Amino acid sequence: MPLTPTHNYFLQGDHVWVDPQTGSEFNVEIGARVVATQTGQIILTDDNEQELKFPIQTKFRLMHITSIEGVDDMILLGDLKESAILHNLHMRYKQNHIYTYTGSILVAVNPYKLLNIYNIENIRQYSNKKIGELPPHIFSIGDNAYWSMQRYQHDQCIIISGESGSGKTESTKLILQFLAATSGQHSWIEQQILDANPILEAFGNAKTVRNDNSSRFGKYIDIHFDKRGTIEGAKIEQYLLEKSRIVSQARDERNYHVFYCLLSGMSKEEKKSLDLTAASDYVYLNQLDGTIYCDSRDDAKEWSIIKSACKVLMFSDEELHDIFRLLAAILHLGNLKFEATTTQNMDTCVVSNTNILRIISRLLKLDEHGLSEGLSKRTLLAHGEAVITPLTQEQAFDIRDAFVKGIYGKMFIWIVDKINSTIYKPKEAAAYRKR
């Protein structure tokens, strides 16, 4: 493809490419429009509505007509390069067109606001349509995968990838919503699959500086269909849960949603039974650089949604109570303090707030003395004999944090397994899968 020639004579309204300015975030050309030509200089307005002035003899490359008008499918761009792709996405984004094709690939730009393009009418509109028949939409990707599965009788796979905050979690939910609606008559298993999302988000998502609902784990979802194309089950695999977040968070970030929902949504009586108070009282939730607030979330309301979803996924009252006990124990463990001491010329430590230790041992159903010993001493086996070594204060804090991460990690795995035990019903008659 020949490059568009450069010129140094332009008319008002011409669209051109401008070299990146010093200090710009991206080292790519930016689109601009000629506003005026005056004696000795040319005045432009760039894509960000910033005014730029250049000497009249400056040479610019004219923009191809496809970049000026914008395209639904970026394969059609006349000057297919990074700057043209970014310009096209930017122009469409400003018009609330957040979806753009690149062949069979869909590029989605997170609008960070609600758009009325995901209702049942939109689902019907995109059902049984080829990619390109209608404006770009995530429902088109779901529909293409579904009908390819039906037509070719092969498993289909949809890969959703992107930066943190790009909308992967929401895109996954929208794909599931579309498949549940388009695969036949509504069934209980479809509702259970959809209700797995708020549970997984509560335990696996958190506020970060870039995203108020950032997934801190990876997931792989198998959706099983019968020969008629009706959803009959699903299986979720989780991996790489960010366990370090449980004990420490970066500036302006939060711990996992479930802790704040628990403390905001529980009744006074429920919190009293677990010796819980406010989020600001717990070290794991109220650290120096972190925050307990998230303006875009209603933690109390989310708590009701989580509990309702757990009922749909067949969590028993006893199982829910056990989860609440573990969450409360984690919060109390974060407040456990160790006092440095010296024993036989060795640096040792002891638990200084035994009242907190008593609460933790009750919640974990562990012997109080055994728990204290386990957190302040290390036991090694040497030649078949147990050698007990006291820990320093710093080591005890590290052991406590490792213990907490282990509890939460195992609990998360159990929750995913519990969800799978409800929604995963393998049958010999199973026909296809959508991954």
UniProtKB/TrEMBL annotation:
Family statement drawn from the similarity comment of this UniProt entry: Belongs to the TRAFAC class myosin-kinesin ATPase superfamily. Myosin family.
Gene Ontology CC annotations of this record: myosin complex
Gene3D superfamilies cross-referenced by the UniProt entry: 1.10.10.820, Kinesin motor domain, Myosin VI head, motor domain, U50 subdomain
Organism encoding this protein: Rotaria socialis
Limits of the Myosin motor domain: 69-435
PANTHER family: AGAP003327-PA (PTHR46049), MYOSIN VIIA (PTHR46049:SF10)
InterPro entries, alphabetized: Actin_motor_Myosin, Kinesin_motor_dom_sf, Myosin_head_motor_dom-like, Myosin_VII_N, P-loop_NTPase
Residues reported in the UniProt entry to bind ATP: 162-169
Pfam families, per the entry: Myosin_head, Myosin_VII_N
Presence of keyword ATP-binding: yes
Record key words, sorted: Actin-binding, ATP-binding, Motor protein, Myosin, Nucleotide-binding
Protein name per its UniProtKB record: Myosin motor domain-containing protein
Alphabetized GO MF terms: actin binding; ATP binding; cytoskeletal motor activity
Presence of keyword Transcription regulation: no
